[in-house]
């Protein structure tokens, strides 16, 4: 008989019982064989062997049976010992399992364990409480991880999901209003441990920091309004001046005293206040008012003012004050009076000459000639007035370079500070300054864009392009803004190919989304695309208070803002939709709006479909390149006529381990390096230089003296297509001001990699 195999310790209780039964049956069978052999020997016949041989055989057989029986008994004893050891091991395993369960339950975070097939094994009560609070059944053991994630999203357990490549894990907003951060760790056996940490307090602290940044931004807005050439103020319901800029204060301040906190009847002379009173009563009744008045300043100057009063309505529909915008139109008024006087004189002459018509035909012809001459002068005066207005608009568009220069320098210095390590408090202040600079840049950019559009400086660069990247970038940009306002931004991607100017089209969508976030108190915003036969509709939906039907066209006018009941005061100038209207007319894209009061609005822009053309292998207009950090020792020459820009650029580039030489002109650079032979990896030049020079000519002089031309990055505040095309033809890289440090670093890496 063969020896019995050992039972593995991992066998269950039923396997042990079955093995014991098999051994007992084998024992009984051996006993039966032994008894049969003994009976056969003892009941011999004619064919039996000799008695002694039979006896000897039975003895041998009995000995073999005894040996097998002893081996079987020994095996039974060993099996009993193994059984006891197995019972003890199972009890210890059960104790360890209970301790592990207790440890998992004591974790403050949500805990989930998946096996090597990523199927659910175990969860703790904190994780299960998330599902119970949302009224969703907890996933059962064995559920795959993909089904757990999809069920959490589809059931509404997860309201929002945010992830960033630099963050440790994904952040979720749950249906109970709590924020959790998910981190995943693989186990040794190929499984997965997932922890959900509550970071609600951290998010609340972040919101407090954002509020502080907004307060700092408000301070910058005050700085900007103080430099706007118009009188700006806010008057409360008690007719006291609660806000005014420096221009307003200088005009109405009596003996150097600020009009802040004073009632209007104290700010103005009694007689002048009585003239203003009807308009004040009308605006306090909820109507916008625009009118012209002549008045005398505190220093005796006689000026003619165009006043606009806009009511401020609270959540209950009550007027709690009004905004005041006063513009000096004295020169325009004088021109109008001169024209009116000329017309009066002309009519007087006509009457006088008409009375003498009898027999004075010669004099009549002379009067007709005089009248024609006067009319010609009037037309000339009108043309001069129109040219003066257009010249003002073109001037504001042209000085955008000078407006953006100090802002560009401040951004460079701020970015250089962000590269340093000063501690959490200082780094927070630097980030706040950077955010405030963004707000100032947006405000100035809006004012300058309006002027450029009016002056015809901006020309569309219409090409066929894929909407995918444009929409994805805008959605990522505004999702965080919506989140900061407690809103949810949904996005439906699209890969449609359209025919338009990508930058101007992006500006339209950004203005739509900015308005949606500004005027939506709660709910969600949707950015999406509807395909039609030969065009697409890019749409932004919101759940805001809606717009009255009679105001749907008014909102596209400059400085017009419809503030619904219950909306908060904002920093906008009422130019966003005016810019949209001008850009859409320039591109030939129809813009439409539909709104239902109390439910929300939808803004749409119609864009024709296009067809992509084969793109060249390389382009000189840098849009997006892969970021690398290998800039150590890069040699860069910076040419800019603004010393602050030079210093800021040098500080920023040296923080990236570059070797930088700055100059305000080519002769200045010639005193610092040997232009012909000194090694250089990149020339970074401003397009606008002093003495009517430009960066293109300066770079041409430098590369003309070198045996091997150096790569060139041209920086400018000029957005015209003519300049962009000229730079492309020269093979230079191009960036517009204000310079984004991250984009600049990307360009440097692109150039250094060749």
Automatic annotation (TrEMBL):
<dbReference type="InterPro" id="IPR036097">
    <property type="entry name" value="HisK_dim/P_sf"/>
</dbReference>
<dbReference type="InterPro" id="IPR003594">
    <property type="entry name" value="HATPase_dom"/>
</dbReference>
<dbReference type="InterPro" id="IPR004358">
    <property type="entry name" value="Sig_transdc_His_kin-like_C"/>
</dbReference>
<dbReference type="Pfam" id="PF00072">
    <property type="entry name" value="Response_reg"/>
</dbReference>
<dbReference type="InterPro" id="IPR001610">
    <property type="entry name" value="PAC"/>
</dbReference>
<feature type="domain" description="PAC">
    <location>
        <begin position="287"/>
        <end position="341"/>
    </location>
</feature>
<dbReference type="InterPro" id="IPR000700">
    <property type="entry name" value="PAS-assoc_C"/>
</dbReference>
<feature type="domain" description="Histidine kinase">
    <location>
        <begin position="398"/>
        <end position="611"/>
    </location>
</feature>
<dbReference type="Pfam" id="PF08448">
    <property type="entry name" value="PAS_4"/>
</dbReference>
<dbReference type="InterPro" id="IPR003661">
    <property type="entry name" value="HisK_dim/P_dom"/>
</dbReference>
<keyword id="KW-0418">Kinase</keyword>
<feature type="domain" description="Response regulatory">
    <location>
        <begin position="635"/>
        <end position="752"/>
    </location>
</feature>
<dbReference type="InterPro" id="IPR000014">
    <property type="entry name" value="PAS"/>
</dbReference>
<dbReference type="InterPro" id="IPR011006">
    <property type="entry name" value="CheY-like_superfamily"/>
</dbReference>
<keyword id="KW-0808">Transferase</keyword>
<dbReference type="Pfam" id="PF00512">
    <property type="entry name" value="HisKA"/>
</dbReference>
<keyword id="KW-0175">Coiled coil</keyword>
<dbReference type="InterPro" id="IPR036890">
    <property type="entry name" value="HATPase_C_sf"/>
</dbReference>
<dbReference type="InterPro" id="IPR035965">
    <property type="entry name" value="PAS-like_dom_sf"/>
</dbReference>
<feature type="modified residue" description="4-aspartylphosphate">
    <location>
        <position position="686"/>
    </location>
</feature>
<dbReference type="GO" id="GO:0005886">
    <property type="term" value="C:plasma membrane"/>
</dbReference>
<keyword id="KW-0597">Phosphoprotein</keyword>
<protein>
    <recommendedName>
        <fullName>histidine kinase</fullName>
        <ecNumber>2.7.13.3</ecNumber>
    </recommendedName>
</protein>
<dbReference type="InterPro" id="IPR005467">
    <property type="entry name" value="His_kinase_dom"/>
</dbReference>
<feature type="coiled-coil region">
    <location>
        <begin position="336"/>
        <end position="393"/>
    </location>
</feature>
<feature type="coiled-coil region">
    <location>
        <begin position="13"/>
        <end position="106"/>
    </location>
</feature>
<dbReference type="GO" id="GO:0009927">
    <property type="term" value="F:histidine phosphotransfer kinase activity"/>
</dbReference>
<dbReference type="InterPro" id="IPR001789">
    <property type="entry name" value="Sig_transdc_resp-reg_receiver"/>
</dbReference>
<dbReference type="GO" id="GO:0000155">
    <property type="term" value="F:phosphorelay sensor kinase activity"/>
</dbReference>
<dbReference type="Pfam" id="PF12860">
    <property type="entry name" value="PAS_7"/>
</dbReference>
<dbReference type="Pfam" id="PF02518">
    <property type="entry name" value="HATPase_c"/>
</dbReference>
<dbReference type="InterPro" id="IPR013656">
    <property type="entry name" value="PAS_4"/>
</dbReference>
């Amino acid at each position: 008989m063969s020896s019995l195999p050992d039972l593995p310790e991992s066998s269950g209780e039923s396997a042990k019982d079955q093995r014991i039964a098999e051994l007992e049956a084998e024992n009984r069978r051996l006993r039966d064989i032994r008894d049969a052999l003994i009976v056969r020997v003892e009941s011999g016949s004619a064919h039996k062997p000799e008695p002694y041989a039979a006896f000897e055989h039975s003895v041998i057989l009995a000995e073999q049976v005894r040996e097998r029986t002893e081996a079987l008994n020994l095996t039974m004893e060993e099996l009993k010992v193994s059984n006891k050891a197995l019972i003890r091991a199972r009890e210890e395993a059960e104790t360890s399992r209970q301790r592990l369960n207790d440890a998992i339950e004591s974790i403050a975070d949500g805990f989930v364990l998946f096996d090597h097939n990523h199927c659910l094994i175990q969860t703790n009560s904190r994780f299960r409480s998330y599902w119970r609070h949302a009224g969703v059944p907890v996933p059962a053991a064995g559920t795959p991880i993909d089904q757990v994630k999809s069920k959490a999203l589809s059931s509404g357990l997860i309201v929002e999901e945010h992830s960033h490549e630099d963050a440790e894990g994904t952040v979720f907003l749950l249906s109970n209003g709590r924020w959790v951060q998910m981190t995943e760790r693989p186990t040794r056996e190929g499984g997965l441990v997932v922890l959900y940490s509550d970071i609600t307090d951290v998010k609340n602290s972040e919101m407090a920091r954002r509020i502080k940044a907004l307060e700092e931004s408000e301070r910058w807005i005050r700085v900007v309004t103080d430099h706007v050439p118009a009188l700006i103020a806010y008057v409360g319901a008690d007719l006291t001046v609660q806000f005014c800029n420096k221009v307003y204060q200088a005009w109405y301040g009596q003996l150097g005293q600020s009009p802040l906190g004073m009632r209007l009847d104290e700010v103005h002379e009694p007689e002048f206040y009585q003239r203003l009173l009807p308009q004040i009563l009308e605006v306090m009744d909820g109507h916008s008012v625009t009118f012209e008045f002549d008045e005398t300043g505190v220093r005796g100057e006689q000026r003619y003012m165009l006043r606009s009063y806009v009511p401020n309505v609270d959540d209950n529909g009550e007027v709690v004050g009004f905004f005041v915008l006063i513009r000096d139109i004295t020169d325009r008024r004088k021109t109008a009076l001169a024209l009116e006087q000329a017309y009066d004189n002309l009519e007087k002459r006509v009457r006088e000459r008409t009375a003498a018509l009898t027999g004075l035909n010669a004099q009549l012809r002379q009067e007709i000639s005089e009248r024609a001459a006067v009319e010609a002068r009037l037309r000339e005066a009108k043309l001069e007035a129109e040219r003066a207005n257009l010249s003002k608009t073109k001037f504001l568009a042209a000085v955008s370079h000078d407006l953006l220069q100090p802002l560009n320098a401040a951004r460079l210095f701020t970015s250089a500070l962000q590269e340093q390590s000063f501690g959490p408090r200082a780094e927070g202040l630097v980030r706040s300054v950077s955010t405030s600079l963004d707000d100032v840049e947006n405000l100035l950019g809006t004012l300058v864009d309006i002027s450029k559009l009016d002056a015809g400086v901006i020309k569309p660069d219409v090409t066929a392009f894929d909407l995918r990247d444009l929409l994805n970038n805008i959605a990522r940009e505004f999702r965080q803004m919506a989140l900061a306002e407690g809103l949810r931004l949904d996005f439906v991607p699209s890969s449609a190919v359209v025919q338009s100017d990508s930058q101007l089209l992006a500006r339209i969508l950004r203005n739509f989304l900015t308005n949606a976030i500004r005027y939506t108190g709660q709910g969600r915003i949707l950015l999406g695309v509807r395909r039609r036969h030969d065009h697409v509709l890019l749409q932004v939906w919101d759940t805001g208070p809606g717009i009255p039907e009679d105001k749907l066209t008014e909102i596209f006018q400059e400085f017009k803002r419809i503030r619904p009941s219950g909306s908060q005061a904002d920093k906008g100038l009422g130019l966003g939709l005016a810019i949209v209207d001008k850009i859409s007319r320039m591109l030939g894209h129809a813009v439409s709006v539909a709104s239902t009061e109390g439910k929300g609005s939808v803004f749409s822009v119609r864009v024709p479909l296009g067809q992509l053309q084969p793109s060249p292998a390389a382009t000189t207009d840098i849009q997006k390149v892969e970021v690398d950090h290998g800039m150590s020792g890069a040699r860069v020459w910076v040419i800019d006529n603004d010393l602050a820009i030079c210093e800021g650029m040098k500080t920023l580039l040296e923080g990236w381990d570059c070797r930088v030489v700055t100059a305000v002109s080519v002769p200045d650079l010639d005193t610092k390096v040997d232009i012909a032979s000194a090694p250089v990896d990149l020339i970074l030049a401003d397009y606008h230089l002093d003495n009517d020079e430009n960066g293109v000519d300066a770079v041409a002089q430098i590369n003309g003296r070198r045996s091997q031309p150096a790569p060139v990055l041209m920086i400018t505040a000029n957005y015209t297509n003519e300049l962009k095309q000229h730079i492309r033809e020269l093979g230079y890289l191009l960036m517009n001001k204000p310079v984004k440090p991250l984009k600049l670093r990307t360009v440097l890496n692109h150039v250094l990699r060749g």
